[in-house]
Amino acid sequence: MQTSSDPSSDPMQTSSDQQPAGAPAGQTGARIPSHAVVLGGGIAGLLAARVLRDHFERVTLVERDDLPPGDVPRRGVPQGQHAHGLLAGGARVLERLFPGLRDELVADGALLHDVVGDGRFYGLGGYQVRYDSGLRGVFLTRPMLEGHLRRRLLTLPGIVPLLGHRAESLIALNGVDGKRAGGVVVRRGGVSREVRADLVVDATGRGSRAPAWLEALGYARPEEETIAIGVGYTTRRYRRRATDLDGDALVLTHAQPPHGLRAGFAFPVENDEWIVTLTGWLNDHAPTDEAGFRAYARSLAAPDIAGLIEHAEPLDAGAVYKFPTSIRRRFERLKRLPDGYLTIGDALCSFNPVYGQGMTAAAMEADALDATLRAAGGRRRGLAARYYRRVSRVVDGPWDLSAGADFAFPGTAGPKAPGTDAINWYVGHLRRATAYDATVTQAFVEVGNLLRPPAALFAPSILLRVLRAARARRRDERRLGGATPAPAAGRAAHPATGGGSMA
After folding, report:
1. Which positions ≥6 away from 422 have C-beta within 8 Å?
2. Is the pLDDT of residue 83 over 70?
3. Contact yes or no for 57/23 (Cβ under 8 A)
4. Do 158 and 13 have their domain in common?
5. Are residues 336 and 483 located together in one domain of the fold?
6. Inside any domain, residue 490
7. 3 state DSSP class of 384
8. How many CB atoms are closer than 10 A to CB 400?
9. Which residues have CB under 8 Å from 206's CB, separation 6+?
10. Structural domain of residue 344, as residue ranges?
11. C-alpha span between 359 and 42 (Å, rounded)
């Protein structure tokens, strides 16, 4: 194997009072030296590169794929063909980093819908109340979103793409407290080369070699928390018609723990298509063939998805993605960390994708990286420890939400936090309350969209409404002889108007 050095990658030093190229107006102070490398060109890597561009004169984006010219699935993103959700918390970060992005996506065919009022959401035994929530979601395919972000990023000065290259190892340099990362060795074919940098950000996904690379530098591996859930996705695309679902735009049928392991969702995407994903926990997965896929859809707790696809025109042969475990690497617990190397996205924490938190968590982690670099004021020493302390607080909320929800299914294996069963008991009642109370629903949706912390669901006012909804539900069950109420035809008032209860 040949090895070459990349002379152009030697960092160019700048004076400590120079303002970073492309930094927001008013940013002043010392800056970290001028070259950063991002490993991985997925959503997390693109957002990390965008943030780093405000702090470094040059950012090299290393991606192992030779990227396709169009917005199509690629090998490095095996889940790219499946339904993705960009939660409101993540959309806000993306709009700040790429102003006007939402309008560009819509102009290119993405769709805007109210994440409460425009869909049918079946939870634990009932349909969620509908109203105009004020939260508008962008619905599109993952390749379309990634393609727009990549094109916007590559128009910025100082962004250098290095495609078709795989990261092999970190470059080790002697630092004050031990070895530090001074860049990365990359390989294309049989040729390796050094790309020297002041900071390497690893966005290579759940298969990241970060633990081994830390060990090679003389540091401990981070603890790993794994939760075995055996989730599997099966997705098919269908032609979308204006009359589908009587004009409703979204469908989400939740699993019914403890024993109902199956869920499904149908989202509208560009080119007049539905993307329909059926998912199951604990290895209870949907087949890809049309007959088996429809049969699985008929087994869901609500009939909406089965009715949608029964007479719809299939557009592909289906795709499968299996996700055996959620993984969180606890870098923040390490006593020693090398300077010059950070992780982000699934390399840091890989969430159960059913809850749609991955892209939004990556956006919020990029926000944490930005805040850490701004607070550092050019100080490189100790940057990793400060970043991981900050980003761990970002990850705590979505990790607790997804991990706690998974433990509602008997058979989930992994470290279960004390009190999880009691919290799941309450959250089950809260989810049932969303069929009756718009205020409860708004709190649930805002927490789920990572706009508010999970503690918001335990506010006294929400607790009281959950109790009232439980009484209303018991009345309805007696009146209907145990039958499930039909989906609400009208809309409740928005909670902000004071008319949030339907109990």
Report:
1. none
2. yes
3. no
4. yes
5. no
6. yes
7. helix
8. 15
9. 327, 346, 347, 350
10. 2-78+148-225+327-402
11. 10
Please check whether residues 369 and 470 belong to one and the same domain.
no
Across the beta sheet with 178-188, what order do the strands follow?
2-5, 191-196, 178-188, 166-175
Taking residue 307's Cβ as centre, other Cβ atoms within 10 Å add up to 15
HEC readout, 132-188: CCCCEEEECCHHHHHHHHHHHHHCCCCEEEEECCEEEEEEEEEECCEEEEEEEEEEE
Q: d(Cα 104, Cα 100) in Å, to the nearest integer?
A: 6
What are the residues facing 321 on neighbouring strands?
Answer: 233
Mean pLDDT of 94-107: 95
Phi, psi of 136 (to 5 degrees): -100, 120
Maximum CA extent, the chain: 78
- Rounded to an integer, what distance in angstroms lies between the CA atom of residue 147 and that of residue 158? 19
* Amino acid in the structure at residue 4: S
Whats the size of the chain, residue-wise? 503
Classify each residue of 338-366 as buried b or exposed e, where b means 16 or more C-beta atoms within 10 Å of its C-beta: bbbbbbbbbbbbbbbbbbbbbbbbbbbbb
Residue 336 has pLDDT above 90, yes or no: yes
Tokens matching residue 180: 């530090």
Note whether residue 442 is domain-resident: yes
Distance CA 425, CA 433 (A): 13
427 and 357 assigned to the same domain = no
CA angle (41 as vertex; 336, 238 as ends), nearest 5 = 130
Do 159 and 69 sit in the same domain of this protein? yes
Q: In angstroms, what CA-CA distances link 387 with 22, 33, 220, 341, 390? A: 22, 17, 18, 11, 5
Instruction: Specify the pLDDT at position 385.
Output: 96
Of 280, 305, 324, the one marking the end of a domain is: 324
Query: Backbone phi, then psi, for 54, in 5-degree steps?
Result: -80, -5
Residue 362 has pLDDT above 60, yes or no: yes
Distances (CA, A) of 71 to 67, 146, 222, 275: 10, 8, 36, 16
Q: Is the pTM of this model over 0.85?
A: yes
Q: Which two tokens stand for residue 197?
A: 């940098």
- Inside any domain, residue 411: no
Q: Domain check: are 165 and 64 in the same one?
A: yes
H or E stretch at 488: none
* Torsion (CA) 419, 422, 424, 428 in degrees, nearest 10: -160
